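Hey all, quick one. A colleague (J.T.) asked me to put the zinc ion job into the tracker so the inputs and the structure tokens live in one place instead of scattered across chat threads. No bug as far as I know, just bookkeeping. Sequence used:
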Amino acid sequence: MVARHDQTRDPELLAALLQARRGTAFFARKLNELSDAELDGDSLLPGWTRRHITAHIGYNARAIARLIEWAATGVETPMYPSTDVRDHEIAFGATLSPIALRHLFDHSAVHLNVEWRDLPEDAWHHTVRTIQGREVPATETVWMRSREVWMHAVDLDNGAVFRDIPVPVLERLLNDITGAWKTRGTDKDLVLKVTDRDLTLGDTAAASPTVVSGPLPAVVEWSAGRGTSGVTAVGPRTTNGTVPAAPKWI
Ligand code: ZN
């Protein structure tokens, strides 16, 4: 069935879809501001050029579209056969001509959007599996994509900043990151204070914690391993006021 509008009527899901679509438009804008030659430049991710980021975002849309096809048909189609295959695909994608790379981004985003739009209401609750092995309802794919497009738009390193990311996306990102730390136990003695939202996260029961504070965008930026600007730190993990590196989360 080909539909003009989203098949779902769930207001929460429609809001999430809008956020993912806005994030995709934001990524597209930042990508389109770059000249072909500038695609060769470094991204904010070590070892990755802007080409790698763009290829990754394109293949990510295809991988998520495979999960939506899975949810629609019940035929298991994983995101990627393995993380190795995914990494090779990104390395290959980064070598494409600028026009092919831009098409990869555009076409994969349109394709994913069509898959989302046409997914029947009940199929949104079907279970699919992420590359990390998590079993999630298809609705979760919308957040998986949102997170990628908003954050990697910043990683393109041509003017997008964490302050450009909508607050609900930042809040959920911070939840994901601190949740990953908790699962691994790497948040021991570490407390995050979000100064503009009266929010404290992390090992709040610690007797002598290291406290990293700042406004929400800066705390998320630091937690995601994207630098220390806008945050301050006090406590045993700091020396002479330097902000320590955040624990890994992916
Ligand atoms: Zn990514």
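Adding what we noticed when we looked at it: The beta strands are 127-129, 135-137, 190-194, 199-202, 210-214, 232-234. The two ends are 37 Å apart (CA to CA).
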